[in-house]
Amino acid sequence: MTIHHQSATQLTRIICAGDISAYEVTTASLEQIQAENPNLNAAITICAEKAQAAAKRLDESIGRGEIPGPLAGVPIVVKDNLCTEGVETTAGSHILRGHIPPFTATAVARLVNAGAIIVAKSNLDEFAMGSSTEHSAFGATKNPWDHTRVPGGSSGGSAAAVAAGWAPISLGSDTGGSIRQPASLCGVYGLKPTWGRVSRFGLIAFASSLDQVGPFARTAQDLAAALQVMAGHDPHDATSTAYATDALNTALEKDIRGQRIGICPEWMSGNGLSTGVADTVSHAIEVFEKMGAKIVEVTLPKTQEALAAYYVLAPAEASSNLARFDGVRFGVRNEANTLPEMYKSTRGTQFGDEVIRRILLGTFVLSDGYREAYYRQAQRVRGQITHEFESAFADCDLIASPTSPVIAPLIGAQTDPLAMYRMDEFTIGANLAGLPALSIPCGYSDSMPVGLQLIAPKFREERLLSIAAAYERHAGQPGVAS
Amino acid sequence: MPDITSDDVHRLAELARLTVDSARVETLAAELSDITEYVQVLRSVTCTVTPSPHAMSSVRKDEVNPSLDREELLNAAPHSDADGFIVPRVVG
Lengths: 482, 92
Known about the structure:
The complex is a heterodimer of chains A (about 475) and B (about 90).
Chain A: H1 8-16, H2 22-40, E1 43-46, H3 48-63, E2 75-79, H4 106-113, E3 117-122, H5 156-164, E4 169-174, H6 180-186, E5 189-192, E6 212-217, H7 220-230, H8 246-251, E7 260-263, H9 275-290, E8 294-297, H10 303-321, H11 339-350, H12 353-366, H13 372-392, E9 398-402, H14 417-421, H15 428-433, E10 437-445, E11 448-455, H16 461-475
Parallel strand pairs in A: 2-3, 2-4, 7-8, 7-9
Antiparallel strand pairs in A: 1-3, 4-6, 5-6, 5-10, 9-11, 10-11
Helix pairs in contact in A: 2-3, 5-6, 7-16, 10-12, 10-13
Chain B: H1 6-15, H2 25-38, H3 70-75, E1 80-81, E2 84-85
Antiparallel strand pairs in B: 1-2
Helix pairs in contact in B: 1-2
């Protein structure tokens, strides 16, 4: 096995024991990235020099006998909508080409302070808007399992990086499924924490009331380790919470006997759900049952209503958040004679088609005469959906469903925006309700990975991790794509 | 609800301060109409609860703290000098 394909926990252990240096691990990771990225296109920026310098500093500090952090020497890949001081951060958009932020996002800074080493910034759908990582100004990312297919999105580069073995942990952001769906399509774990669990400071905002930063990994233990480091209150994000993370430590060993897993029949059939995905997910649920979990039927919000509410609310917030990209303070400008013409030309040509579509949609649902019928009604439906999830949790400890209705589509196959939006139908509910949710790799259909989604009540990530760890003991760790 | 027309796309683009390629206007109008038609399902949902906004965990103290470096921020702009961001002239 290639050195850096070991789990983060294992890498830190052998680096701290002096069996191998952080420099060697970092170099092995960088060599793989440099060899594969011309084909995979999962990275926008490879941070070779900075990563090797950081690894050397870490090795020196370990040599001096200083106590290393819990992720010492672990290579990580960071989605390129998370700001990194001194490293170009583009959000996958032409409008931010060349943008070097003067600060680092809190979630990233916490991992770095724990000893992790950023080896690359990963590709994404522009401003995290998309489900395929085809809508990037830097070209499409390929799925490491089959280069003719998409990795999912919007955090497709981060999912592909962990699936390909570039790094044991990567970071993504999830607004409507952007961590879980690519995790599912690439055969890795992807966790969207509770809204407020991880600071959003330094995450380039798409839809602030839905956005959440979270990790990808190939073991449940690494996922827990990354969340443990990132979670907690951040003075720079007033919506972040200091909720205790103690339960995460013991979650991995916890027996899942007696855990009540809720299943909604409407979420397990129809709606464009492929038979292969449905069968694979059902089989995994049977495994949970064999391990002692209790399967109960619950009523969940209709996925079409959640999708509709999302495609009103997320564009509305995006149209406001993206107003700051106007050619004045950062990124790229198209010169013009007047200020309004400069704004319009810069935004009109430097934003991609999907971003423009969503800004216009958001502008429409917020405009005079339509706000009540669209935006306010979507807010009311969001409240209703949140309430329905809370009611479901009266009868179960967590909810299981497919993550994505289908396996990874072929690159270029999705030309209808609505068809792409429908890929998020099972993931969006957790964002609307602010709930933590995890995609677990649970098998294959047509030789492509399938993910099972688990959703828990707010701040109950430990329940997700317990099931993931128990399933991993049964089915083994997901392998590196080959 | 009305379909979104090409004129609507021009009006929305003006509100959003961005130019839309004239070759794309009709396609955008059709795509936005499809999406707004899809979201009509929201109208039939009976809502029995009042939505509550996310709660803030805490607010910071109102005190002055060191912030980002002014020069660094100005340097990140496409056009700036030591005094500020430079934009096309807006008054006389």
